Q: What sequence folds into this?
């Protein structure tokens, strides 16, 4: 097991604003995923309307004097009042525009129909994932995935939606070839980088094996070079 501690912070918890600040710094600023509007606001505005359904998983180094996160994930839960729009990838891929061009649907038609029929309470959004520059090595991303997979399995969440930057998508397809699937066309410069909308089937045997190996102390599932590309939104 990793030496990193992972804390969950949900909407309404005392540390929620601090987690948002860490997301802005570790995810947004450090990776140059921020817009001018984000910089002015001091937060990732893409996720502003998802706050109530958001929860953060922060990886902490118990040996560090500071409590600045070594890594952070934002996970967005299903909101019955919003339906498919609960998940930022689905909402934005359904009507996507770049540089003022007319909005178009980038979701594949079959997947669009799938999300109209599936029990949406079994889905969550892996919105952001980042590792702080000083910790881009094995252990941080795996620790956060471990915590989020445990929570997802407990709560009956079988699938994550996400928008992965192209290099990270290619790497995930290598290590989870059947558990991850593209659900639409490339989203140019989505939250700062060209991204591919995907689903990750967290109930798939490949993900279960990843989880089992991590808990058994087997490393290398998500190596450091992939963590440098770790931007999901």
A:
């Amino acid at each position: 097991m990793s030496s990193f501690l992972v804390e969950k912070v949900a909407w309404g918890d005392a540390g929620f604003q601090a987690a948002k600040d860490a997301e802005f710094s570790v995810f947004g600023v450090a990776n140059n995923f921020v817009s001018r509007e984000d910089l002015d606001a001091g937060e990732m505005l893409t996720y502003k309307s998802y706050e109530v359904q958001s929860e953060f998983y922060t990886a902490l180094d118990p040996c560090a004097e500071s409590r600045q996160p070594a890594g952070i994930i934002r996970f967005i839960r299903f909101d019955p009042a919003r339906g498919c729009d609960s998940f930022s990838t689905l909402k934005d891929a359904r009507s996507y525009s770049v540089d003022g061009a007319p909005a178009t649907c980038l979701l594949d038609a079959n997947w669009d129909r799938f999300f109209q029929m599936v029990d949406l309470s079994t889905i969550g959004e892996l919105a952001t994932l980042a590792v702080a520059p000083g910790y881009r090595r094995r252990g941080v991303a795996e620790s956060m995935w471990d915590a989020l997979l445990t929570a997802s399995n407990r709560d009956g969440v079988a699938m994550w939606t996400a928008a992965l930057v192209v290099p990270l998508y290619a790497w995930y397809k290598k290590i989870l070839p059947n558990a991850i699937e593209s659900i639409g066309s490339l989203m140019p410069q989505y939250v700062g980088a060209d991204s591919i909308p995907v689903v990750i089937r967290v109930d798939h045997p490949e993900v279960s094996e990843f989880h089992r190996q991590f808990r058994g102390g087997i490393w290398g599932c998500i190596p450091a070079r992939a963590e440098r590309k770790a931007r999901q939104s």
About this structure: Residues 140-155 form the longest helix (16 residues).
